[in-house]
Amino acid sequence: MSIHKMIALHPQTGGDPNEPLATAARHAMFCAEMCTSCADACSAEEMDMRQCIRTCLDCADVCTAAARLAVRRTGQNDEAVRAMLEACVRACEICAEECARHDHGHCRLCAEMCRECASDCRAALQAA
């Protein structure tokens, strides 16, 4: 199943899923889950991981909101979509920086996903 196909089937897209935006939405959804999982793993670590947990959960919420706005094709609210993509880029950058401070496999993986998501959101902003 593909969000790209779902968007392409929407009556108002004319079959054009806006590939960069669809990819950003897809990766934002994945990133939200990775950040949530990382926060959960951080809560099981013996060291104080409060800041990483907070950063991951904030990033997950922003990514979820960005993905939800990006897949809505009825009508237009380009300004809000751009604002959410910009917020997603910044939240992902902040989360990647925080996770990169820790030598845990889950943090490394989360940081990598956040960097990918930020890159995809930047590409969607350039294509808009």
TrEMBL record:
InterPro entries, sorted: Csp_YhjQ (IPR005560), YHJQ-like (IPR044543)
Recorded superkingdom: Bacteria
Protein name in UniProt: Four-helix bundle copper-binding protein
Organism: Sphingomonas quercus
